[in-house]
Amino acid sequence: MNASPLPRAWLDRRRIVAVLRGWANPIRHRVPIVVTLLLVVPDMAASNDRLIIRRAGSQGKIEIRGEILEHRGDEVTVQPDSDSPVQVFRGAEIVLLDPERSPSHQEGRRLLSIDPAQASIRLEQALNEEKRAWRRRDILADLIRSAVAQQDYAVAGSRYLALENSDPETGHIAVMPLRWTRANPSREDRAAAIPWLRSKSPTAQLLGASQLLMDSALAAESQAVLRQISRGDSLRLQPLAQWQLRRPEAFSGQPRLTDLQYWQVALDRLPADLQGGPAFLVAEALDRRSESILAASYWLRLITLEVHDLRLSADAMSRAITTLRRLGQSAEADRLEVELRQRFPASPPDDSPDVPAAGASSGPNG
Predict the structure, then answer these.
(1) What's the pLDDT tens digit per position in 165-196?
(2) Are 156 and 177 in contact (CB under 8 A)?
């Protein structure tokens, strides 16, 4: 049975090239600016945490400054000032959460893409200085990003499990340290991942399976665990497990065009902050089918997303640059290369060889 052709939009090369040119220019082409009504609640509190909300049915936004008392799951409790009642905001109401951070926390975040090892030192300092649980979780999320930037998945995974233990419905799920490239884990990461894979915690199982999916000795066991999670009770973990199951096919197989159509639909259904890794897989699969322009468009998609894995973003930009040069778009590639060096000076791309998983089977179509 022959595969159905890709949708017409996928084959409009001229339109896609125009998009590539836009993404490749870091100054003139970016996401359109949307002007909205912004109401500001005067800041009368000692703390200077910032929260922007949008009430249901309203087009305007409200900025609230004060002290965030708690941030657990998708719920934020804030004290605007000493004379105002405590307010609680949830889920879709919250447009932006911008807490006031200590100097050491700010410095640690600044160093993440410059010197992750130094960033970890400053973030550890910030963690030791902070007593409030929700702010400690905020710092812990950045420590996870720092560990991933250093390719230390054993530490990153342990920190994420601690974060989830403190807040089971954590809003920091996007920093979960999953692998999205073809690389095998280090000896230390493998040693940490095996107990996770065989634990009773679905999150730990997902972390372990992600690390060991391309390990020839443990690929089959990892796939079985991922299939179980993909059909399990956790709606938060299901899509991540489904996308991890697609990794072997993205790197070592040649997905059918009909499967890639579904991958694109499934990608668009994910929250924006979870799309980075899956977009990388779509790009890899398209590249294996010699759909170079489309592959570059998905690698460049990581630029506009909030991707917490800095090395993955750097790798995606590097691959897009190579593709643009191959397509004869040298000027766009040069501009993108300048942006790569500016944004990720400490995150060289992952150039590890393709490592097929023994016994790897195709990922889910659904």
Answers:
(1) 999 999 999 999 999 999 889 999 999 999 99
(2) yes
